[in-house]
Every structure is written in structure tokens, then in C-alpha cells.
Amino acid sequence: MVTFKSDMAEDEVDRIFDAKYEYRELEKTDGSYIITVYGDAPFPDNIEGH
Fold first, then answer.
1. Where are the beta strands (DSSP E) in the chain?
2. pLDDT > 60? residue 49
3. Which residues of 22-31 are buried (b: 16+ CB within 10 A; e: fewer)?
4. Is the pLDDT of residue 50 over 60?
5. For a disulfide at 41, which of 4, 15, 35, 46, Cβ 3.0-4.6 Å?
6. Which helix or strand (DSSP H or E) is residue 26 part of?
7. pTM of the entire predicted model
8. Is-contact 10 28, C-beta < 8 A?
């Protein structure tokens, strides 16, 4: 999950992330964007995010 600010329109930001990440959520609150990306762990015993 990453929070960032941009002057870009939400549909343009979403289009950019859509080209890179298959499973993601984009939210805009209080002038900031929050992108959450979902994907497989890089190795089987990864406990990151637990």
C-alpha cells in the first residue's frame, strides 16, 4: 500500500496503474491517492503482510 499526491486526474492515474498491476485498488481521499497492490509472495515461505 502506497499513499501519494498528484495533480493527475484519477482516471489517468488508474490507467497508468492498470497497465502495470492486474490486481489493485485505487482510492482518492483528501487530495491523496492510495494504491493497494495484490500479488503473489516472491517465495513460498514469505510471511510479509501477515
1. 2-4, 24-29, 32-37
2. no
3. eeeebeeeee
4. no
5. 46
6. strand 24-29
7. 0.70
8. yes
Give the span between the Cα atoms of 17 and 46, in whole angstroms: 24
C-alpha cell at 42: 516472491
Q: What is the pLDDT of residues 28-48, one digit of tens each?
A: 998 899 999 998 766 777 666
Q: How many helices (H) and strands (E) does the chain have?
A: 1, 3
Residue that has been written with the C-alpha cell 503482510 in this structure: 49
Residue with cell 484519477: 10
Would you give the distance in Å from CA 1 to the centre of its chain? 6
* 8 DSSP 8-state letter: S
